[in-house]
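Quick board copy: two proteins, each given as sequence then C-alpha cells.
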Amino acid sequence: MAFSIFLAFTILWFLFMTYLSHQDGEHTGRTSRELAEKLSFLDSDMNILNSRLRRMAHVVVYAVLAVLLGITLKLSGHSPWLTVGAIVWAWADEATKPLVQGRHFSWFDVGLNVLGIVIGMVIVIFVF
C-alpha cells in the first residue's frame, strides 16, 4: 500500500514539475514575478529576489522528486541509488526547453537540477 501511494505521488510530482518547467517564457516569468512580489519582505530588490527564487525552484523541485523516487525505490525493494538515473531527466528537461516559446537550454540550470537530485538522495539515504 505504501509503495502504491509513493509511486502515485512520484508520478504526480514528476508531471507537475514537468508542466511548470515547460510553460512558455511569458507565463513562467509572470509566475515567478508574482511569487517574488508575495515574498518581497525577503529582499527589497525584486529582480534579485526573482532570480534567486527561479534558481531555488530548480533545486527544490528536483530534491522533492529525488526524495519521492528514492522512497518509492526503497519500498519496492530496489536501491535508492537508482535515483541517480533522474540525472538523465535533469538534462532532458533543459534540452527540451528550446522547443517552448521564450525558453532556452541552460547548463547552469542542469547543474541546479542535479544539485537537487543529490540533496534528495542524501536525504533518502541518511534519513529513510
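And the next:
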Amino acid sequence: MFTEVVILVFLAINSWLDIKKKEISLITVGIFGITGILLSLSQRGFSWDYLIPAAIGTAIVGLGILTKGAVGIGDGLILLTLGTIMEPEKFLAVFFMGLLGCSAVSLIMLLVAQNAGKSELPFIPFVLLGYVGGLLLW
C-alpha cells in the first residue's frame, strides 16, 4: 500500500508540473529511480522482464532526442523511473492505458479544434489516470 501511495504522489507532482510548466522534476525522478532500483533488487531480485519497461522508457527518450522535443524526453524519464518499481505487466497496463487516454483526447481535439494539430498535450497526467485506473482494476 505504501508503494502505491508513493507512486501516486510521484505521478501527481510530475503531472502538475507537466501541465503547468511543461517540465518534470528531475530531483523526484532521481530519488524515485534510485529508490525503485534498490527496492526492486531487494524484494524481487533481478529478472530479464524488468528490461521491458527500461526499453520502452529508453525508446521514448530516444524519440524525444531524435524529434528535438516533439516527443517529451521527460515522459521517457518518468516511464523509465516508473519501470524500476512496478512489475512489468502492471507497467505495460498503465503505459497502454495512458496511451489510450491521450489518443482519445487527441482525436477529440483534432475533430473539434481548428489548430489542434499544432498544440501540445502533456502525457504524464494520462499515465497518472492509467495508474489510478489500474489500481481500481487490480
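Board note added afterward: The chain is about 75% helix and 0% strand.
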